[in-house]
């Protein structure tokens, strides 16, 4: 590594060194954060909320610059909306920080403990993970949400947002860091990595030993790239190819209500329904009715039946995240479970049925983070589950599965106390 | 992929296809295992124990072949001992299976649950991980231990043992598979991958979507290679550069007893002490005494002090796993924690002290799976902790940290029950 001045363009090695240096500073900050009392952390969250409100004008001005650039480069309106901050949204960001302050502190919780027959006292406590890397796309509110949740759980965070939100994120992180410094807390608890170069992502996810976990939030492409190339442990989030299975015993009024809610409430979210599976036993009545209801609500229905948009393999496998849904007729519960086994992403799978044996079998056999019985897939959400806030929805089986709140941002530590105990040979 | 007959040498692609086919069979088996009652699983474990005993002669004969080959190729005696099975050890293997049968079933445990304000009932249940890959070194008993623990937790297992134990492992797995088949359970719950080619490991750790987790057990080289190249989530295990810190307030009799136990009880295990840190405040008395005690017990002491084997950076960073220890004098608790932060592997760190503030500070600040206060590092062990059995000791922070028992071989699933609930916009 040769020294570079700030006037020079960063070489690849210099970029890696920058990320590693940020991670090293984050580790130092994390050691301090791990020991903070709940009161100190909550004070910091309220101070950060105050600072966000006090700096609203500057934050909105930075956001306007991001928006102008995005508009000039032809960004579609839905993405502009995700990027846009308004006075109301800034209020919401500050309120989110206060909400996290109101939640119980997950750190230090006694998870297990006993006195062993030899008199050793063992206790398992929740401790912070350490340094958390977040990789995410346009919404600037994620910047502050991630800060709030990681700070409350005693972690330092390295943020790698999208370049389209670079000015908004820089303004927000600047405010958060100043708020921490004003309370004599380490500003390096939150750092924004450069979004100019994709290589920042690579260096972050390969900073093993410096970063304890990376959480990618975004599209399937981002998540699979991170998971493939990371050496740091990752938590896969948010790809949801969710199914609604209408069992032979379903109340079709209920099925229609749940299906429409699951598909049309918000089409761009990971818990939206992407495929409806209709039991052959009720297909004659259910298919025309549900196709009509979907069409009436502006949804294009893809499938192998006459009158539908012809389906390819991708229709079954991918998330549409749009006003589209795939529809298949399946020959009973076994076939529904087999279809979900093949195409599901392990996020949320729903059954509509009045038969108890069917709902029990579906719940037991479907392999997913969440199974909905006579309820919309839209309920898979940290706030809906009562966690108060959510850092993402895990679709992997290790560490956390489903909505992740503060507890999922902790690890554990065993403390063993003796009075000179040695272990027999 | 071109078809190959069994007479042809496997091409790299064919080897990958073999591993993937085994994983696909394991997934089918895992779906069935996930639904078994505890009684069925326990019956299978007892049947497997009976079968191991009934086939003891064949197992010992296969092991003799492995031993003869290993001896002929100049394997050192300590490794031969790890490979060797005896009638007593076969009895121990069978007893281990019965022990696992006696443990509570982790699957189906209700971890959390509540009724939400809207009337939705949410429950979080423990469920199997699915397909577990185990990569391990010589000891053939690990083959059966891993089978027992994964079966009890409802998982299928893909075993990749060392080539030196290939015949022993094949004999054991053959016995286990036959025992399952005799009970109409899927034999593919346990499969032995070929140990002839190192590429099997690569294919296993990159079979994302087919394998749910890989647990490497072995030396630091194996574990870091697996962690670096894996796309399947992994649990890092067992590298323990453990420290014993002798605080200024330590009872030196106790310190000596704990240090000797932690270093000399068994030098090849991950919870053995590799460095002793002595507080400068008591160095004058403690250093000569502890060096003498170590030397008297056949331990070579490395360090920067006169009379010790001169230390290099590796002495502080690496596990000896031998009759060696590094010794450093540190300037108080801060310096001890800083040394451990720099060189520790997050396994087990011990303090010997009578001062309560010192033990509290050390416990809170050291970042490790286990902290021992006035107790030997040797206690970090699933059986010692009362788990009944252990699949490994995790040194990572995600999913599991410290000794892993049956519970750590499970994931979770949310079951949400409503009566037509939809989520408001």
TrEMBL record, chains A, B:
Gene3D superfamilies in the record, alphabetically? Aldehyde Dehydrogenase, Chain A, domain 1, Aldehyde Dehydrogenase, Chain A, domain 2
What does the function comment of this entry state?
Answer: Catalyzes the NADPH-dependent reduction of L-glutamate 5-phosphate into L-glutamate 5-semialdehyde and phosphate. The product spontaneously undergoes cyclization to form 1-pyrroline-5-carboxylate.
Question: By what name is this protein known?
Answer: Gamma-glutamyl phosphate reductase
Pathway linked to the protein: Amino-acid biosynthesis; L-proline biosynthesis; L-glutamate 5-semialdehyde from L-glutamate: step 2/2
Which Pfam families does the protein's record reference? Answer: Aldedh
Q: Which reaction does it catalyse?
A: L-glutamate 5-semialdehyde + phosphate + NADP(+) = L-glutamyl 5-phosphate + NADPH + H(+)
Q: Tell me which PROSITE patterns the record gives.
A: PROA (PS01223)
| EC number(s) stated in the UniProt entry for this protein | 1.2.1.41
Organism this protein belongs to:
Rhodococcoides corynebacterioides
